[in-house]
Design a protein that fits this description.
The complex is a heterodimer of chains A (195) and B (162). Chain A is built from 6 helices and 7 strands. With 195 residues, chain A is of the alpha/beta class. In chain A, the strands form 2 sheets. A 5-stranded mixed β-sheet of chain A has the order 5-4-3-6-7. The longest helix of chain A is centred in the N-terminal third of the chain and has 30 residues. The radius of gyration of chain A is 24 Å and the shape is elongated. Chain B starts with a helix and ends with a helix. At the A-B interface, helix 5 of A face helix 3 and helix 4 of B.
């Protein structure tokens, strides 16, 4: 009986297959690490269960920044009645990334996007002070002292920003502070796609 | 005296915190079966902040709020299924530590079966590949072998085979 000096091709392929698989796995892991550094991949990021569904109903006491202004209620019905795409932003005066994203929200406001704000677990006085200090990008501000409305939205931290279309369908959720890149790559395309 | 009291109560408090995940006894329901049901439900739900702890084990504010909500629903006499669904509507199936069996989690649930099947297939394949052990040497072959390597033991066996 004679043995071939080199193993048959199928044997070699069998040996190569796991190696190739491991190589592919490494490449994928490196890609994820790279995207994490770029900020385009968040391993702890969660998809929102609300996407494609209608805006949860809410009615919150409002916060008025005007001197002696009477705060009116802020409701989901108001957003529905507006019939135009808008942003809904959960923030808090005690939240550091919220300060960071105010200039970005201000720029969005300047470009004509209506932004509704909901102060999450915040004292109205503290919210007012926060907005006087950092600027007020919101057309209406509601106060969610208990955080119950936030739970209806599936919120898991502040800030969170939701894109809501003209029919009040939730189209996008950005968890964490938004920046110019988020606006350019996610928020504006989403607003345009669902005019 | 105050220090001594602290020394005594601190370990006690720490132990209590370890024994019961819910840090504040005021959170607990007075009705024991209800409380146990709420705890069992909470252990099956993921804390969205910590992501690898259940809301029953987590110290996060959001987990505490969700524990309250569970207890409100339990007190209202809602079924486990209904309470879990309430959570899933808001937070998605990710909130369930035991994911449901559906198209998205098919691979996850079938992974052990797949791994076992792959292993079994591998074993079967290897068995089939390996040729059967060759037939025993004939006497003539033994003789030649013994001659070639001069091995005594084989020499000794020669007469047996002949």
């Amino acid at each position: 009986m004679s043995f071939p000096i080199s193993p048959p091709l199928s044997r070699r392929l069998l040996l190569l297959a796991p190696l190739a698989g491991a190589g592919l796995g490494c490449a994928a892991a490196l890609e994820l690490l790279f995207r994490m550094r770029q900020g385009t991949y968040d391993p702890r990021g969660l998809p929102s269960a609300l996407i494609g569904g209608s805006l949860p109903d809410f009615a919150l006491p409002g916060i008025s920044l005007a001197e002696g202004g009477v705060p009116s209620e802020v409701t989901s019905a108001q957003m529905q009645a507006a019939h135009r795409p808008a942003l809904l932003n959960f923030f808090a005066s005690w939240c550091v990334p919220c300060v960071e994203e105010v200039p970005v929200l201000m720029q969005l406001k300047a470009s004509g996007v209506p932004i509704y704000g909901i102060a999450y677990k915040d004292k109205p006085a503290a919210t007012t002070e926060f907005l006087h200090r950092n600027g007020n990008p919101y057309s209406l501000i509601g106060s969610d002292r208990t955080g119950e409305v936030a739970i209806d939205f599936g919120l898991y931290g502040v800030p969170e920003t939701y894109v809501v279309d003209a029919g009040c369908i939730v189209r996008l959720r950005c968890a964490g502070a938004i920046n110019m890149a988020t606006v350019r790559d996610s928020i504006l395309p989403s607003l345009k796609a669902h005019l | 005296v105050r220090r001594a009291a602290l020394c005594f109560t601190l370990p006690l408090l720490l132990f209590a915190a370890g024994a019961s995940a819910v840090s504040d006894p005021r959170e607990m329901l007075l009705n024991r079966p209800d409380e146990l049901r709420a705890e069992a439900l909470g252990r099956q739900l993921r804390c969205l902040v910590c992501q690898n702890e259940s809301i029953e084990a987590s110290d996060a504010d959001l987990a505490r709020d969700l524990r309250h909500i569970i207890r409100d629903h339990v007190k209202a006499g809602e079924s486990d299924r209904k309470i879990t669904d309430w959570m899933v509507v808001r937070y998605g199936t990710f909130i369930r530590l035991r994911p449901p069996f559906d198209a998205q989690t098919l691979l996850l649930w079938l992974a052990p079966v797949l791994a076992l099947a792959t292993g079994a297939a591998g074993v079967l394949l290897l068995r089939r590949r390996n040729p059967e052990s060759p037939p025993p040497l004939t006497g003539e072959e033994r003789g030649r072998l013994a001659h070639l390597i001069g091995c005594r033991s084989l020499e000794d066996n020669r007469d047996v085979s002949r």
